[in-house]
Every structure is written in C-alpha cells, then in structure tokens.
Amino acid sequence: MITEPASPAGPRPPGRQPAAPGAPRATGPAADPAAPLTPTAAVPLDLADLDDPRVLAVGRVPAGSTVVDLGTGDAAVPATLRRTGCRVRAVEIDPVLAAGARTVCEQVVVADLDTLDLASAFGGHPAGVVLALDVLGWVRDPVGLLRRVTDEVLDPSGWIVMTLPNVGHASVRLRLLAGHFVARRPGGHHPGSPAALCSEPLHHFDPTARDALLAEAGLVALECKRVLAPLDAESAGLAADDPALLRRLEADPDALTAAYLLTAVPAGSRRVTEPPLLPAAVAQEVAAEATARAERLAARLAEVEPLAGGVGELLPALGAMRAASASRRETLRSLLRMLEGNLEAMSDEADRSR
Fold it and tell me: What is the pTM of this model?
C-alpha cells in the first residue's frame, strides 16, 4: 500500500552527490583504469538536513544492517551508515570515486550496473537493504536491474530504498510551456540535487512512470514520500501573466515534488503485511513536522511584525485620543448632572405654584 507523506523542504531539494554535475554513476563506459587514482575520503551526511533525500534514505536503514549501495558516488551514504554499524558493499563505475568509497565500504565493485553480474558480485552476501538513490534514471533497463536485485541480492525479508527525481515539477512544466527544455534541477543547482532534466538521463519519472516501474519490477511500495521544493522565482516569473495557472500549480502536490523516496519490497514478501518498524524514520518524521510547524509560526510572525511596528507608532496617538475621549465623557456627565439639577428646580417651582 502506498502512502505519500510530504517532506517539507527548503529552497533546494538535495539528492545523490554526482561525480560531476549531472554525470551518471555506475552506468555508461568506465573510466580509464590506467589513470592515476586520487581518492578522497568520504564525508558523512548532515543528518539534521531533512530536506536531503539521502538523509531520509539513511533513516530507512536499521542499525547493523547489511547494505548494497548501487551507484554510491561520493560514498556519503555508506560513510553515514558505517557510524550505525552497517556493513556496506557498493557499486561505482568511476574508479576515483570507488577508491574513496573503499575507505568506508567492505567491498566496492567498479562496474556498469547494466552489465554487472550481481549474483557473482554479491550473491554470497544477501543484503537486508539495497539502495538505489538517484540511479535508476541512468541505467538502460531499470526494471531489469530491480528484478536482478530482487532475485540475486536482496534478502527475502529485506527491502529496497530508492529515490526518483520528479520530471513533473512545476519549474519543468513552466519552462516547457515557455518553449525551454533546459537541463535544470527542480529547486536549484545544489550539487547533490535530483538529476531531473540535468545532463541526459535515459529515463524520466512522474507518478505514472514511478508506479509503472514498481509494477513491472514486481515490487510493492510500503512507503512513497514526497520531497518537496517550492517554485523558484525565475520559474514563477514565467507564469506572471497567468496567476490562475500559478495557483493551480502551487495547489498540486506533484508540481511541488522534487523527488520521490520509495521503500519497496517484492510482491510476495512477508513485509507487505509485516512492514519493518524504522524508529529513525519515525524520528525524522517527527522532527520534520516540528520544523515545519516552527517555520509556519516564523512565517506568521514575519507577517505580523510589520503590523506590530505600525501599532507601536500609533500608541501615543491612541493614548491622546483615549484621554480626549475620557475628558469628553466627563464633560457630558457634568452637563447631565446640571440638566438633572435644573429639571429638579423647575419641578419644585411648579409644585410651589400649585
């Protein structure tokens, strides 16, 4: 069963760290093996950055798990999982990145995911969790890869965590309407942001393509989480002459989704009816909601603040008006008392006359 909670994101939607801007990982022709390697130590993720799909993916991996990371890139995810006692094996096509990944992974296979024999590479070590983060758009046959993962690598009680950039983000739609098919990443050019329309991925995903991918691979989504990114000012400017269109886009959850984070299992897995309890993911949801509430409160305070300043400037005038009003009320009361005295005097005079 698919549930689609939204992850409140900031101005940018991070994703998998690429070898170079927009460059695919673990796909295509391998680099020259004779080239000198200058490995860089992998740096763990900032777990407080809940806008980063990689951080959310880490929350779907229990401590101490056996993990296979497909297209590990800069190995920030394995470096983070290593701190929780996980044993990570990885695939990376770039030998330089693979050399850096070896500092945090038990095994790194330098290979193309389209041709790699997963059974030979990892068959003796079933994985409780397989990660496919921002990689399925770059392989020639993503359905076939997921099927091979299920048959050759995944433990029967394990699951796959994947991220899919959303090609239907509002920024992409507006640019297409304006006649621009530009390699832009929804939410900005953060170096780890999703690769939708960046460089030349072989596959693009929207909700229909996402669901078809799962169905054809024989997978069931236990969770489908939206990672949101607001419409940037430049894209919003393309709809400046059509405010109704802009309102429709801003009201459409898919139009503000930069990427989908999915936790999926084979259709016959016991996990379909007995989903795993993931305390870290629950903690992330609680923290994200608390952050969202704080941001909403801050936004409301920002709206009220100018009004508060204006009220402060009006206070002296309001005080003067209040004093004048009190003086007028006292004057009216004095006049009423005078009139009452006059009426009593006139009444007494009338009685004496009779």
Answer: 0.73
